[in-house]
Design a protein that fits this description.
The protein is an alpha+beta fold. It has helices spanning 8-13, 15-33, 38-55; strands at 94-105, 111-120, 128-134, 161-168, 173-180, 190-197, 200-201, 205-209. The chain has a domain at 94-209: Immunoglobulins (Immunoglobulin-like). The strands form two sheets. Strands 3, 4, 6, 7 and 8 form a five-stranded antiparallel sheet that branches. Strands 1-2-5 form a three-stranded antiparallel sheet, with no helix packed on it.
Length: 216
């Protein structure tokens, strides 16, 4: 009886599962190698971008400005304003002094006194300095007896003032004179000075003040 032999196709029919297995393995390997590389590099790439952004100057900070056209001022380096700002009233005079220069006999038994007033003030601010006398003791009361007739912070009525002298803005002294009658009562309860220019006047500086004397 002749030996039976396997059909040739029998061996071939066992190949597809192996091929299928190899195909699956190939697909798995391909799938592993196909993962996107950018996903790994996202952290460092983002950090590098953030570092670059933070190192760049933000808009509006004092970084070096772009070149300005000739004759224009750089916005990052504004020019300092001058001591005599246009449209600005001058500062109040400071460091005032008040001293008698001379005394001369006057009619009626009185004495003509000449006083020199000095002060300090910034250069270039004032067009002139004006000295005023205050006609009456504005704080006259028993409660204020023995205290100055004019003190810091008081408001002085215009009708209480008499202009005594005016000096140019470059001067820092001026002489004033008046007659003290025989009774000895000073004609002015206080002497004030202020700086002035076309923009306005400074507040008053007290040069001298008599004291409140009730019953005098």
């Amino acid at each position: 009886m002749p030996r039976s032999s396997r059909p040739v196709g029998t061996r071939v029919t066992s190949l597809p599962p192996l091929v299928a297995l190899l195909a699956v393995l190939a697909l798995l390997a391909a799938a592993c190698s196909a993962q996107p590389v950018s996903e790994v590099g996202t952290g460092p790439d983002t950090a590098a971008t953030s570092a670059t952004a933070s190192a760049s100057p933000a808009v509006g900070t004092e970084s070096a400005p772009p070149s300005a056209p000739p004759g224009t001022a750089s916005p990052a380096t504004p020019r300092a304003s001058s001591s005599a700002g246009a449209g600005t009233p001058p500062d109040k005079p400071t460091g005032t002094t008040f001293a008698i220069l001379s005394e001369q006999p006057a009619d009626g038994g009185g004495v003509r006194q000449t006083h020199r007033i000095t002060w300090d003030a910034p250069d270039g601010q004032a067009a002139s300095f004006v000295v005023f006398g205050v006609k009456a003791c504005l704080r006259s009361s028993a409660a204020n007896n023995g205290t100055p007739c004019v003190i810091k912070g008081m408001r002085i009525p215009k009708n209480a003032l008499v202009k005594l002298a005016e000096a140019p803005g470059t001067d820092r002294s001026v002489d004033v004179a008046w007659v003290v009658p025989k009774s000895g009562k000073e004609p002015y309860a206080a002497v004030l000075i202020r700086a002035t220019n076309p923009a306005g006047d400074s507040i008053f500086a007290i040069v001298h003040s008599e004291e409140v004397c009730t019953g005098c």
